[in-house]
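Please decode residue identities from the backbone states below.
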């Protein structure tokens, strides 16, 4: 199999179809396109999500916190706590572990999130640090947002620019090569993209505003997220390539390595569907979050990217473009 997330058809056949439904309290269950579960706690819904960081060793603690909290934010929920599992290779040093913990605690504090437990071990099963986080949040029932609520005629909105996480990872992993090609200032700017990978603020704002669906853009990039939100909602999407925001550093790095920024891991970018798209874009902008309408949800279930007058079908996500480079 290819490196990265298991393809959605295999995920459905081998994993999801074998999961039994036993408890009525579980309101949101495993499903393609859904990153969180929701458990009924009367007035509130407990929202949880779990994710590993495996694609890089740089800034792994920072990434682990934000990736997990972003999933919770995509439900319109504020993250509360994190359970962290740290698997370190035998050659890890005391300083390595201390660095990872400083990243974890620093980023958690920046989001007002507590680290509430987890597990740490040294194991020969890994050859570099692997972190897995489970994030816990809560949200009022009437404010709950899922990835499966998109409706025909909703506007499709993305926040910030696509490829943020992938750009930062490549800039860290390929720093010397990119410095030779583009210069140090360029690489420093690209590395700083990692400071923009949280979507907690836009998730909570959008949830309070009232949106039909949200999905943070991770592996598979914005095209993968569009496919997943359409699949989960049983609708179609039509988006215009020229309207999708791509940062200059992302564009140049992707051209240099011959990869597609629309299929590059993009934590920090939230995909939102909403009937009042213009009003939401204004609200986000007023709160310092750039956002753009890139298309519309359709009824015919076809997933289409408009590019220079051509209609290109959006396929289910494969291995992320990141793995072609690092």
């Amino acid at each position: 199999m290819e490196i990265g997330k298991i393809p959605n058809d295999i995920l459905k056949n081998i994993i999801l179809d074998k999961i039994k439904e036993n408890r009525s309290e579980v309101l949101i269950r495993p499903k393609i396109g859904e990153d969180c579960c929701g458990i009924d706690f009367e007035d509130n819904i407990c929202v949880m999500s779990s994710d590993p960081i495996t694609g890089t060793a740089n800034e792994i603690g920072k990434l682990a916190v934000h990736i997990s909290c972003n999933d919770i934010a995509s439900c319109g929920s504020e993250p509360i706590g994190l359970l962290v599992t740290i698997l370190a290779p035998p050659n890890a040093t005391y300083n390595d572990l201390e660095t990872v913990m400083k990243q974890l605690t620093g980023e958690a504090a920046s989001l007002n999130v507590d680290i509430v437990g987890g597990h740490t071990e040294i194991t020969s099963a890994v050859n570099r640090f692997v972190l897995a986080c489970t994030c816990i949040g809560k949200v009022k029932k009437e404010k709950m947002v899922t990835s499966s609520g998109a409706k025909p005629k909703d506007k499709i909105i993305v926040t910030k620019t696509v490829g943020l996480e992938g750009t930062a990872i490549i800039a860290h992993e390929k720093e010397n090569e990119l410095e030779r090609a583009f210069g140090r200032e360029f690489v420093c700017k690209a590395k700083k993209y990692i400071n923009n990978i949280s979507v907690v603020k836009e998730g909570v704002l959008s949830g309070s505003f009232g949106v039909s669906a949200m999905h943070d853009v991770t592996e598979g990039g914005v095209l993968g997220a569009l496919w997943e939100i359409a699949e989960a909602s049983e609708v179609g999407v039509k988006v215009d390539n020229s309207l999708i925001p791509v940062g200059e550093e992302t564009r140049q790095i992707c051209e240099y390595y011959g990869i597609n920024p629309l299929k590059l891991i993009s934590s920090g970018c939230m995909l939102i569907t909403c009937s009042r798209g213009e009003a939401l874009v204004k609200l986000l902008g007023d709160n310092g979050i750039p956002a753009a309408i890139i298309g519309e949800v359709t009824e015919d279930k076809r997933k289409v990217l408009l590019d220079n007058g051509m209609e290109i079908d959006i396929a289910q996500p494969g291995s992320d473009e990141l793995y072609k480079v690092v």
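Observation: Residues 155-324 form a domain with the Phosphoribosyl-aminoimidazole Synthetase; Chain A, domain 2 fold (CATH 3.90.650.10).
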